[in-house]
Amino acid sequence: MSELHMTAGRLIAADINALAGAVTARHYEAQPDLLARSGEAGRAKCLQDAGYHLSYLADAVSASSPSLFTDYVGWAKVMLGARGVPAADLSRNLAVMREVVRERLPAETSAVAEEFFDAALKRLPSLPPDLPTLLPDAAPHADLARQYLRLLLGAERHAAGRLILEAVDSGVPLKDVYLHVFQASQREIGRLWQMNQLSVAQEHYCTAATQLIMAQLYPRIFRTEKSGRRLVATSIAGELHEIGARIISDFFEMEGWDTYYLGANSPTPAVLQALADRKADVLAVSATMTFHVRAVAELIGAVRASENLGGVKVVVGGYPFNVEPELWERVGADAYAADASGAVAAAERL
Ligand code: B12
To answer: Are 12 and 101 a contacting pair, CB within 8 Å?
Structure first.
């Protein structure tokens, strides 16, 4: 991560509230029909969204990754569009934001941010307004995954659990169930939430049910013969998404590793302690939200600075690392994999 980008990212992050306020005031001044269209509640929402845009901008700038910001703008286009905010409003808001950042930040740092705005604004019109299903006919085990998701959305977690156990008993490999049913249906749930077709409560219910059903498979996973290698797996501090790290951990367990899975939002001192206590060979760290990438770099820095953890190798993964292929190196990791199928091989190469 370059010094100039880190400084620019820090300056934007430190001034988010004031910047978001100035952007919202100027956008409403330039486009008075906004107030007539959505009232004071709309203005409050616009202020909140400007804060999110700036927060993602700050993190993408810190990580020297225009793709992370462009990806976020594409995501926001779909998410806001599904909630009645046209892409033209998003585009205008970002153009106003570029102006405000230029006026308020020192020239050298605002020039860095402007490149990020330019790249995103150029792509915005051609980015898709909605997203196709993530469970298409051609996907492996598509029927099983769709049936599973249908049951969960119908609040039938017991039937969903039975469906999975029967599939495994009839020969569907465990790893296929993890990737093509659990991971695929979770991502489809995310798409449906983004498209405003499903609630956060449903997102929570399906996730909790999937974790319950995964636990029912553990007798089959934990009987694998052990190789003596040890893994600690965790989601980074602040991160609430935990299934990615859990699947990674279970794939290592299936390959004979002794695993120690810490779950979501693990504080750095607890991770360091677990690495030392477990005499771990590898630490697997998961981050989903771009605003947690900095914490991953800090955790890796803390591992490297610990005298007793000299031999620990760090593997990272999760959404932002899949968007920006060089990000894993910039945070100081030893390896990365796009999903669980490549993770064990990546660690074993170390
Ligand atoms: C369930 C869910 C939640 C749950 C999480 C609960 C839990 N106990 O885990 C809750 C409700 C808490 C939540 C909250 C939020 N979420 Co959410 N969530 C999801 C959802 C639907 C599924 C996540 C999941 O289980 N995926 C399945 C796993 C298996 O996939 P994965 O994480 O990608 O993991 C694989 C690879 O990435 C890789 N990998 C991952 N980690 C690691 C680590 C290593 C070492 C390696 C090698 C590889 C690796 O391997 C994994 C296995 O193959 C996703 C949709 C999605 N596309 O994932 C949205 C999603 C991630 N959430 C999103 C958002 C916006 C949010 C919220 C801001 C708002 C909200 N929707 O409520 C908050 C932010 C919370 C926070 N501060 O962390 C967005 C993020 C968009 C973006 N551009 O950043 C998504 C993509 C939904 C969407 N399409 O809009 N969420």
So the answer is: yes
Q: Does 315 contact ligand 1 (Cβ within 6 A)?
A: yes
What's the CA gap between 282 and 348, in Å, rounded? 9
* Closest C-alpha to 134, from 175, 173, 192: 192
The number of C-alpha atoms within 13 Å of 151 and in the hemisphere containing its C-beta is 19
Cα 202 from chain centroid?
A: 19
Side-chain-side CA neighbours of residue 126 (13 Å): 4
* Residue with token string 């009839």: 170
- Pocket lining: 94 vs ligand 1, CB cutoff 6 Å: no
- The pTM (predicted TM-score) of the whole model is 0.95
186 lines ligand 1 (CB under 6 A): yes
- pLDDT at position 333: 98
Pocket probe mutation, ligand 1, options 70, 204, 286, 288, max atoms within 8 Å of Cβ: 288
Cα of 189 vs centre of ligand 1, distance in Å, is 10
The predicted structure's pLDDT at residue 1: 63
Torsions phi, psi for 336 (to 5 deg)? -150, 150
Which ligand 1 atom is at minimum distance from the Cα of 179? 53
Express each pLDDT in 74-133 by its tens digit: 999 999 999 999 999 999 999 999 999 999 999 998 999 999 999 999 999 999 999 999
Instruction: Answer whether 284's CB lies under 8 Å from 343's CB.
Output: yes
Tell me if 340 CB under 6 Å of ligand 1. yes
Strands 258-261 and 313-317: unpaired
Q: What are phi and psi of 2, to 5 degrees?
A: -75, 150
Which ligand 1 atom lies nearest to the CA of residue 210? 25
Q: What is the pLDDT of residue 36?
A: 87
Lowest mean pLDDT among 29-33, 254-258, 320-324: 29-33
* Cα 245 from chain centroid (whole Å): 11
Distance (Å, whole) CA 133 – CA 124? 21
SS (H, E, C) 234-257: EECCCCCCCHHHHHHHHHHHHCCC
Q: What is the pLDDT of residues 293-314, one digit of tens each?
A: 999 999 999 999 999 999 999 9
